[in-house]
Amino acid sequence: MEIEIATIGGYEAVGRQMTAVRAGQDVVIFDMGLNLSQVLIHDNVRTEQMHSLDLIDMGAIPDDRVMSDLEGDVQAIVPTHGHLDHIGAISKLAHRYDAPIVATPYTSELVREEIDDEDKFTVENDVQPMESGSTMSIGEDVDLEFVNVTHSIIDAINPVLHTPEGSVVYGLDKRIDHSPVIGDPIDMERFREIGREGEGVLCYIEDCTNAGKKGRTPSESTARKHLKDVLKSVEDYDGGIVATTFSSHIARVRSLVEFANDIGRQPVLLGRSMEKYSGAAERLDFVDFPDDLGMYGHRKSVDRTFKRIMEEGKENFLPIVTGHQGEPRAMLTRMGRGETPYEIDDGDKIIFSARVIPEPTNEGQRYQCERLLKMQGARIYDDIHVSGTSVRRVTTRCLTCYSQRTLSPPIKTSRVSRRTWTSVRVRATTSARIFISVATETSSNWWSNDHRFDRIAGAGRHRRAS
Description:
Layout: E1 3-9, E2 18-23, E3 26-30, H1 36-40, H2 52-58, E4 73-78, H3 84-87, H4 90-93, E5 101-103, H5 105-117, E6 127-129, E7 135-139, E8 142-148, E9 157-163, E10 166-171, H6 188-196, E11 201-206, H7 220-233, E12 241-245, H8 250-262, E13 266-270, H9 272-283, E14 294-296, H10 299-312, E15 317-321, H11 331-336, E16 349-353, H12 360-375, E17 379-381, H13 392-399, E18 406-408, H14 418-427, E19 433-438, E20 445-448, E21 461-465
Parallel strand pairs: 3-4, 5-6, 10-11, 11-18, 12-15, 12-16, 13-14, 13-15, 16-17, 18-19
Antiparallel strand pairs: 1-2, 1-20, 2-3, 7-8, 8-9, 9-10, 19-21
Helix pairs in contact: 5-9, 7-8
């Protein structure tokens, strides 16, 4: 059976993830993501009203037109988790394929919301929830398995495509966390079993956002303890305290809600994405928030809540808001510009339980947001966070699970080099070839198990480290 892998988006860039794997005549697409930073640099852009071709030209979503050169039929679209860089283009691209969207229950719920918000296209693909630890048949002699992983969003998986030639492991976006705040630990034992079964692992596609960093990625329980210490340290402050974090990071949001009550403040979730992600998690019983927890997404309801906070006293509340990346339209940035009824006074505390995503647009916007807040006298507590992705030591541990013949790292940042991956391979004592995938806006790199490398649309660049 011939195996081909097309690296379509998310390689050498943060965001717009998309990879297609062909096994015989059956094709599975992993992820269809959005590069939000390419949208934020434009004013008044509403992606739900835009055509996919305009977003492709903008560099915001994957250019999937190269899929026409890939033989076979798409049998499934498989988003690995609910972050926008993995599901944000589904509403723009999925309707082109006569295939179901297969995802874990929480990711499925978020995909449905993305589809419901879409104004330009009608997306009628069936959304099929599948639990982590489950397997389904994709085609003749091809099975899809979901292996549970821990990440900065709940219900994340690494999908594994089992073929007669060996398994293809799509290993993006995870960390080894044996004590997560919500959900089960990463299933490392299953990864080890896959490495020993049948023909072993034919190709392992590994996340490398932090692969150049030494050390280890701490558990979410570490961030929880740090966050508790910070909030306890300001427990006696009689002014305003505001917290911001990734709205999709339900474990972190739950910790903030819990610790707000511990210091005698009423937590309130504010912002559209905060309402979306936390609401979905509560509906699916991933989290049990207090009955009196308010979630407000629409601007009018948010402003009414801010007015109530000012009337009843800022010292009685902990607003948990969007805007940790300094997004121009997010809640915290609006607060910094004085566009909400909430007044920031000298000495008020702003807690960033998130790190800035290492991308120039985000870094610039975060700097501007912090500057606006400091101009009003706010004191900033930043980087109360642990990463959701693996550093070099953890990547090495994952590689030792397999006897894979090929390692394909999506290069999400120019700081990760061939040298880094050669080092990781040596530390893991594996003899795998390293296929460095480089996606461009108009072409795709393909890998095949008979070692043929094809140039698509005349513009693809391929580098192979052996």
